[in-house]
Amino acid sequence: MDAPSGGLFTDLYELTMAQAYWQSGQTAPATFSLFFRRYPPDRAYFVFAGLAAVLDFLEGVRYTPADLDYLRSLGRFDAGFLAYLAGLRFTGTVRAFAEGDVFFANEPVVEVTGPVVEAQLVETFIVNQVNLHTILATKASRVVHAAAGRQVVDFAARRTHGVEAANALARAAYLAGFDARSNTLAGALYGIPASGTMAHSFVMSFASEIDAFRHYARSFPDASTFLVDTYDTVEGTRKAAVVGLEMRDRGHRLQAIRLDSGDLLDLARKARAILDEAGLADVRIFASGGLDEFEVDALVRAGAPIDGFGVGTKVGVSADAPWTDCAYKLVAYAGRPVLKLSAKKQTLPGPKQVHRFRRADGAPIRDVIDCVGEAIEGGEPLLVEVMRDGRRVQPDPSLGASRQRFREGFARLPDRHKAFRSPEPYDVEISSALRDLQRRVSDETRAREVPGGEATGPRR
Amino acid sequence: MDAPSGGLFTDLYELTMAQAYWQSGQTAPATFSLFFRRYPPDRAYFVFAGLAAVLDFLEGVRYTPADLDYLRSLGRFDAGFLAYLAGLRFTGTVRAFAEGDVFFANEPVVEVTGPVVEAQLVETFIVNQVNLHTILATKASRVVHAAAGRQVVDFAARRTHGVEAANALARAAYLAGFDARSNTLAGALYGIPASGTMAHSFVMSFASEIDAFRHYARSFPDASTFLVDTYDTVEGTRKAAVVGLEMRDRGHRLQAIRLDSGDLLDLARKARAILDEAGLADVRIFASGGLDEFEVDALVRAGAPIDGFGVGTKVGVSADAPWTDCAYKLVAYAGRPVLKLSAKKQTLPGPKQVHRFRRADGAPIRDVIDCVGEAIEGGEPLLVEVMRDGRRVQPDPSLGASRQRFREGFARLPDRHKAFRSPEPYDVEISSALRDLQRRVSDETRAREVPGGEATGPRR
Fold this sequence. Notes:
Two copies of one chain form a homodimer.
Chain A lengths: L11 H12 L5 E8 L9 E2 L3 H10 L4 H9 L5 H8 L6 E4 L5 E2 L6 E6 H6 L1 H25 L3 E4 L8 H13 L4 E2 L2 H7 L9 H6 L3 H11 L5 E3 L5 H17 L6 E4 L4 H14 L6 E5 L4 H9 L6 E4 L1 H4 L9 E8 L2 E2 L14 E7 L5 E8 L8 E2 L2 E5 L2 E2 L6 H14 L15 E3 L1 H18 L11
Parallel strand pairs in A: 6-7, 6-11, 8-9, 9-10, 10-11, 15-19
Antiparallel strand pairs in A: 1-5, 1-12, 2-4, 3-5, 3-17, 12-13, 14-15, 14-16, 17-18
């Protein structure tokens, strides 16, 4: 039997619901909104990412004979339904923010409209991918912001939750402004610049540290970065300076040294002094070792003579915010707007649009979530049709173009929303028409479903 | 051009080091130890997982023509080295703990010995996979322990960092004792039992909640779990009871209801009372909604009438401990034991073994890390050869066998090491021979590399 396909990457309940929809003749068009309910700690914006993976999936999703064999083996699916699944394709419409756009909590960033079975079955994959790429791009944007123009390189390939996540991180981090990454596979896949230094093992395998540096310099006479902390950072830097001068005598140049442990501020100052005294002012200092935006920011503010940062562990899993409350909720079925009832967290019914209002200098000041088709003056509509009848309406922007779009959009977002601790919330309003619709649907639903009046249970 | 292969999933520095090793004639056998330096918060053990993925990679890793084309395009690799890479295979030896074994900080759980280039190049993948699977299996084991025999199902497919991580979680969670998972693909890949209920969207798409239940019951007359919190949990449970009685009249049975929000303890009690009063004492109550081991433990201790838990978001990314300090360090080169110098965190030189000592009833009381070949009496050696000359020495144990191994090993680990908050550390000793070796290598290295005496820099 062939291996199961990606079509099976769906929660089983999507398939059981699909059978129940199908058997109930419940096959009208539905609209689902994808949004992030609230911010993780110390966040007041997100960076939208992962759309290309979603569109690839939607164009390609199908149930192969191997998939259907597996489902049949579970003993709970109807033969007619499985035959229907065999021919199923995604034929719907997708509207979305653009890759690299800054967005805010509760804004619908993807809306999927199509026959309810199709739009339901793709939920698991869409949420998984937008959530993953957005979490990583958002985290990466914070590190870039903290580095304030210094080089930032992704070292996280060994720390991410799998190879797929490492490649997603490399892509998302480049989108958000990283300069390079160490993950060779992601470099090949996405054409992102390559970067690499050496590990402690290399140094230890030679008879002495200075031998290791000399051998590496022979292999990479103009592309060497020496890792200097295997035994003692100050002594290691002195040896790097010796070899750096030997390289210069041969007409080459030592690129950089790398600090990977200890008090990076203090050691960077000592290393800078050693290199400068040796006449190696052009040798750069690169730092790594458990860094995230908080530590990079502290080093930059302290004036550490560090030219570039390698970030890994904490960025690779977005350690302070590894998950979000990303939801994909039914908002309309057969033209009827619907919502979940909840005193605290009602969903917003119906297909929506988001308009962004800006100051004259381009800085965004307010977003308004409104009903599709509502007349809103002066704002820029952010949800754009990207797929119709199950096919992309145009090719994806290049990663470079999305990176540029992010760079421009992020630069215009006021700094108060980008603070690393307790950033100020951005103003997101709900249009009065949408508010009225929400009230009406909520009242009707409550009257129908909760005879006693107020809903008592749901919190989300 | 063909797509790049998994062989390129390596930090670029592994490849630059490989070229420098190769050009320096530095091709002797090396041994690398993989270990976890310290525990994340509230952990005093880990569950070893991911070995099969590592062995698959080692047996299959190679550099395809497409990979070599990409590397050539970077302009920093020597043609002779690329020709050498084209023929490279992993030909080494691997010793490892068994899948599902409980282990502790600083213990070498995988040791790789082979020509240094081969053993170096595979670092990124090995660390990535053992780290991922071990983090997830460890987190899952805590949830199973908290559930104290109640059913636990993995709902995290939409929250993990990618599809690969979702499949890894489904497998690791089953290894650690979960009963089922919602991820259909993982079910097909690993033969793990399937589970699925319904989503709010299903309920909202129908004209009324009770209609939705009735339609679902017709599709799954003996396998229905009704989600009751879309509008109001108490009212939803009453409707579920009505439909549950209708199902019984037709000779079928409502399996369960699912609570997904609100005060789960209070709502579970109310729901249990409603179902019992209706004569539906056999309808189970299933709870979900942001649960982790801490909340499951609180509900179980409070005596909540909940028969099963669905856990997703916080378990899928191991939210309180999404990363570890997993390291893969050179410990010997050409028969010479080596280490990094560090006042606080010296590595342990040379190939090692770990022996576990137990009480008469089987409870582990102490592990000893020692030198390979050292005579240790009475302990059980935990590192076993699993690969020789680049091939597995025997087939992997089945997932079911590893699950059983974990269950037995975990049951014997005293509860004080399994506490959810501030567990008591388990006793891990270093043999006196290993301690002596560490001192000797450390002294020799310091004398050679740090003329002033004490190392000043490295912290890790």
